Amino acid sequence: MPGSGPAYQNLRQRVDNFVSNHLANHEWNPTLNKNQLRNELRQRVCKSGMLESGVDRIISQVVDPKLYHIFKPQIEKAVHEFMATEMNEEAVPNPPQEPEKQELSSPASGNTSNALAPA
């Protein structure tokens, strides 16, 4: 597979060998329950732990090198943008509250002056 790293190739080779060894222990006959054999093989591969360790190696080989020079700057940028948005949102609610209070007090004082004024 072009572009595949050594960790992927290693995992693939290990799984291929595991499957070959497992199948070598079974004699082929037309009545062989292939679904049962497939499920048994799948369970044995999962229980072996080779998939977990192989995937961990692939992640180390593929993701870790990109972590600091690709992902980290993007994460930092997203955090900075989020924090700037948060700071702006925190600053915005305070000024509108003052005009609302003034508007509420103005009609009340206007109503009071109208109530005291002779008709």
Overall geometry comes to elongated
Order of helices and strands: HHHH
What is the number of helices?
A: 4
Mean pLDDT: 79
Description:
α1 (6-24) crosses α3. The mean pLDDT is 79. The chain starts with 5 loop residues before the first helix and ends with a helix. It has 119 residues and is an all-alpha fold. It has four helices and no strands. Helix content is 83%, strand content 0%.
Key attributes of the depicted protein:
119 residues, 83% helix, elongated
Note the topology.
Blueprint: H1 6-24, H2 34-48, H3 50-91, H4 94-116
Helix pairs in contact: 1-3
Question: In short, what is this structure?
Answer:
The chain is mostly helical. The protein has four helices and no strands.
